[in-house]
Amino acid sequence: MVAAEDAGRNETDVAEKLDIEPDMVVQEIGWDEDVDDTVREAIEQRCGGELLDEDADEVVDVVLLWWRDEDGDLTDTLLDIMTPLAEEGVIWVFTPKTGREGHVEPSDIAEAASTSNLAQTSNLSLGEEWTATRLAYRKPAKTKK
Q: Which Pfam family is one of this chain's hits (predicted)?
């Protein structure tokens, strides 16, 4: 019994590491058969609802973007998905780890984030296949008076 409880706890830990809170509205973009369903299920369990798909038009707290090298222009995609994002919202860009098919160079993510006026704030390892990069709106510089 302990092993099953630990497995459930580890799944929840992933959602906590991603700063997912109960009642958050979470949108998922870029789903394909290669995504990590354990991560998806943990997020759904933690937020208490299903993930919204790409066509949803409500304001969201978190966007989960599964991104692979061949998926197109990351900057354009980030600009598109920022539209429904709440002011304090975040984007998690999930990319295949180094050596995996579809790997995206961290410098490509950093460049796309900067061009989109987003700040890269942290990175996490998601199991054996995926890495997560947290992007958030840049805070305006404080002016001295």
A: DUF3052
CA–CA separation, 58 vs 22, rounded Å? 17
Single pTM value for the model: 0.88
Please answer whether residues 78 and 112 qualify as being in contact, where contact means their C-beta atoms are separated by less than 8 angstroms: yes
Q: Exposure pattern of 17-55 as b/e (b: 16+ CB <10 Å)?
A: ebebeeebbbbbbbeeeebbeebbebbbebbeeebbeee
| Residues 6+ positions from 76 with CB-CB distance below 8 Å | none
Cβ-based neighbour number of residue 67 at 10 Å? 22
CATH of domain 22-137: 3.40.50.150
User: Would you give the DSSP letter of residue 52?
Assistant: B
Q: DSSP letter string over 24-47?
A: --EEEES--TTS-HHHHHHHHHHH
Q: What is the pLDDT of residues 92-142, one digit of tens each?
A: 999 999 999 999 999 999 999 999 999 999 999 998 899 999 999 987 666
Helices within the chain (DSSP H only): 2-17, 37-47, 74-82, 106-115
